[in-house]
TrEMBL record:
Residues of the full protein shown: 220 to 998 of 1154
Catalyzed reaction equations: ATP + H2O = ADP + phosphate + H(+)
Gene Ontology CC terms, in alphabetical order: nucleus
Family of this protein: Belongs to the DExH box helicase family.
Keywords of the record: ATP-binding, Helicase, Hydrolase, Nucleotide-binding, RNA-binding
Molecular-function GO terms, alphabetical: ATP binding; hydrolase activity; RNA binding; RNA helicase activity
Domain of life of the native organism: Eukaryota
Protein's recorded name: RNA helicase
Length: 779
């Protein structure tokens, strides 16, 4: 026997003892009986047998039946019991960080051990696992990343891919890679888990893998649609705006690719019938004129409030789960509800929120029982639809929408819009009300609209830009990107794939022959959007790392500048204070972040955020991302050990501006000055507008001919979310392909560009840095 084997045997014995001790303890016994009451338990033997006998199986079952927390645990337990615990290595993927963290925490509690021991988790840039970890919950992105460097998943015995019904991009991608891996790893077991019943699709993809359904018990849930809700609550749709709340007209327009035309007409005809016809006509003509940008208040907060009041006054006890579209909505509604005499009374209502970026402490509260006579109301995104189960929910309020990115390949623009959910999602949301007793679901849209919903949501692979994905495919060395993606469950459009390839060539991650460049290899390693990765590398090379680090971290979390619906002006003014006439949202972000660090040292961070309309939570997230990115770049050998060296040129604003440009290119818009106004044009779209909260939206003129931006979003019109002004010289030197951008010819031109080289010693630096750059690019 090898030494390794002996160690594993010894470790297995230890695991067996620990497991037995826990199962015999009073707490362990109690936990076991709780776990045995879950529907999955009845199928345990059948499942273990099926997994032993088949390389791939598909499991479907009602949300909450115990798939995620129980099934991987059954394998771990049975292996441990038979004295082989240390020989198994189980990975279970989750579509979201927060579910990976919540589930691993739950499973380790169920096993009576601290997290990071046998059970661990790993999400982007964060994790808790140790050398004894044998069941790892991670995001699907993490597993993909691991596959880049470990193509055979050596040592892994079981892979669970969870929530596949959501059809997330990473899950679809994983399935292609795993399908290709299975013949090479005959001993590897793959278990796919799904909440809804389109399991056949996945089974067929794997050549008819067996499907096991876990029958679950849920109580009946009464479905109420808008017409019923209006009657019950006595709420009147008085103004057109409130019809607008359900924005039918808007959604049909923006979702044209997604909703078949026939269905669209059907919806519009039916809505006209179900709501007062004449007012609807007036409404639609008005709506067509005023299709301004979507704002968070169009969900109809007043109606939601009316429904909540109705439940609190008239209904039996039980928690309420409200499905909203996103964090902005949730926080606006929360503020509104808090000011309400009944709903805002903490002795009667416990108001909680559930979304991707919530704090762990809040996360725990969601699962807890509220005090007697206090009603728990949880405002949630569609995260609570399937990945998180709140047991005591009896009432569900469903606004019918989810914010998702759709991708318009023709314009190569992602659209972030709340769009109608599918019938499958609506049913799923409704089902959340029947976990403990019969429930009610208030769908805030007419029944006819529900009937016109698509059966299932479009897979993410078909509705998002494929830049990162294509880069990862390339680094998997599986040949042509197009060919690889054509093996997907539902392959994306060739145009979308071509756009991504063109983009990667443009930024210098792929060469003309579609081969990964050295830069591309670095970018594939970074857990970042490729263009942000490039900006970060450039920041390191050009020795202005710190501000760039903040910008990259900010762009990859979300904007810390808040824009409350009713205080837009004040918030805009607050943000403008950070702009210091440098015409850059990105530099405003750097200043805001640095101000926050100072305030934190003085102990006034809370007040600082409040006064300046900043989200403390987001700043905190930026802070921790900065640390992580810093670590990764240092690890990759791109940073000097001495922080001062890396920041030697951080004070040079033109240089920082140039590095921003090098990362964000080809996101550029030209500034067209008119007498009293400006307009902006991107390379492909023509006219674009600036987001209202952009510092550049506050000026009448901008002393730069170009704006670079990270994100343009289509919200009826195309908006630039963030921008930085850049000069011609910066664009020539830093725009475009990294390897082409800094050519010898350019160096000669430099002498003329004094705005860039205000400091004559800079030219010298530039030449040195160019050499460094060349070294980086040389294979
Ligand atoms: P599924 O994956 O089938 O949707 P889960 O395995 O996530 O189901 O959950 C099984 C049960 O465990 C559910 O009833 C759920 O409410 C409960 N549960 C999950 N996480 C927690 C937690 N953190 N605290 C208390 N109960 C939990
Ligand atoms: Mg689950």
């Amino acid at each position: 026997r090898s030494v390794m084997e002996k160690i594993l045997i010894r470790q297995s014995l230890r695991m067996q003892n620990m497991q037995r001790a826990w199962q015999e303890s009073p707490e362990g016994k109690q936990m076991l009986s709780l776990r045995r009451s879950l529907p999955a338990y009845k199928e345990k033997d059948k499942l273990l047998q099926a997994i032993a006998q088949n390389q791939v199986i598909v499991i479907s079952g009602e949300t909450g039946c115990g798939k995620t927390t129980q099934l991987p645990q059954y394998i771990l337990e049975s292996e441990t019991e038979s004295g082989r615990g240390a020989f198994c290595n189980i990975i279970c993927t989750q579509p979201r960080r927060i579910s990976a963290m919540a589930v691993s925490e739950r499973v380790s509690t169920e096993r009576g051990e601290p997290l990071g021991n046998t059970i661990g988790y790993k999400v982007r840039l964060e994790g808790m696992k140790g050398k004894n970890t044998h069941l790892l919950f991670c995001t699907s992105g993490i597993l993909l990343r691991r596959l880049l460097s470990d193509r055979n998943l050596n040592g892994v015995t079981h892979v669970f891919v969870d929530e596949i019904h959501e059809r997330g991009m990473n899950e679809d991608f994983l399935l292609i890679v795993l399908k290709e891996l299975l013949p090479r790893r005959r001993d590897l077991r793959l278990i796919l888990m799904s909440a809804t019943l389109n399991a056949e699709l996945f089974s067929n993809f794997f050549g008819g893998a067996p499907v096991i359904h876990i029958p679950g018990f849920t109580h009946p849930v009464r479905a109420l649609f808008l017409e019923d809700v209006l009657e019950i609550t006595g709420y009147k749709l008085t103004s057109f705006n409130q019809i607008d709340d359900y924005g039918q007209e808007k959604v049909w327009k923006t979702q044209k690719q997604l909703v078949p035309r026939k269905k669209k007409n059907q919806i519009s005809a039916l809505v006209e019938e179900s709501l007062n016809k004449s007012s609807f006509e007036k409404y639609s003509s008005r709506a067509r004129d005023s299709l301004s940008c979507w704002s968070p208040d169009c969900i109809g907060f007043n109606l939601i409030e009316a429904v909540l009041c109705h439940i609190c006054r008239k209904e039996r006890p039980g928690a309420v789960l409200v499905f909203m579209t996103g964090w902005e909505d949730i926080s606006c509604l929360r503020d509104q509800v808090k000011a309400h005499p009944l709903l805002g009374d903490p002795n009667r209502v416990l108001l909680l929120t559930c979304h991707g970026s919530m704090a762990t402490s809040e996360q725990k509260l969601i699962f807890e029982k509220p005090p007697l006579n206090v009603r728990k109301i949880v405002l949630a995104t569609n995260m609570a639809e399937a990945s998180i189960t709140i047991n005591d929910v009896v009432f569900v309020v469903d606004c019918g929408k989810a914010k998702e990115t759709t991708y318009d390949a023709l314009n190569n623009t992602p659209c972030l819009l709340p769009s109608w959910i599918s019938q499958a999602s609506a049913r799923q949301r409704r089902g959340r009300a029947g976990r403990v007793q019969p429930g009610e679901c208030y769908h805030l849209y007419p029944r006819c609209v529900y009937e016109a919903f698509a059966d299932y949501q479009l897979p993410e692979l078909l509705r998002t830009p494929l830049n990162s994905l294509c880069l990862q495919i390339k680094s998997l060395q599986v040949g042509s990107i197009g060919e690889f993606l054509s093996a997907a469950l539902q392959p994306p459009e060739p145009l979308a794939v071509q756009n991504a390839i063109d983009f990667l060539k443009m930024i210098g991650a792929l060469d003309e022959g579609e081969n990964l460049t050295h830069l591309g290899e670095f970018l594939a390693m970074l857990p970042l959007d490729p263009k942000l990765g490039k900006m970060l590398i450039m920041g390191a090379i050009f020795r202005c790392f710190d501000p760039i680090l903040t910008i990259v971290a900010g762009l990859s979390v979300r904007d810390p500048f808040l824009l409350p619906q009713d205080k837009k002006d004040l918030a805009g003014t607050a943000k403008a204070r950070y702009s210091a006439k440098d015409y850059s949202d990105h530099m405003a972000l750097v200043r805001a972040f640095e101000g926050w660090k100072d305030a934190e040292r003085e102990g006034s961070a809370y007040e600082y955020c409040w006064r300046n309309f900043l989200s403390a939570q987001t700043l905190q997230a930026i802070h921790s991302l900065r640390k992580q990115f810093n670590f990764i770049l240092r690890d990759a050998g791109l940073l000097d050990a001495d922080a001062a060296t890396n920041n030697r040129l951080s004070h040079n604003q033109s240089l920082v501006r140039a590095v921003i440009c090098s990362g964000l290119f080809p996101g550029i818009a030209s500034v067209v000055h008119r007498e009293t106004s400006m307009s902006f044009k991107t390379m492909d779209d023509g006219q674009v507008l600036l987001y209202a909260n952009s510092v550049n939206a506050r000026y009448q003129t901008i002393p730069y001919p170009w704006l670079v931006f990270a994100e343009k979003v289509k919200v009826n019109t195309v908006l630039l979310r963030d921008s930085t002004g850049v000069s011609d010289s910066i664009l020539i030197l830093f725009g475009g392909n990294l390897s082409h951008g800094v050519q010898a010819g350019h160096l000669k031109m430099l002498e003329g560009y004094i705005d860039f080289f205000m400091d004559p010693s800079m030219a010298e630096c530039y030449v040195k840095l160019k050499q460094e750059l060349d070294n980086l690019l040389q294979k």
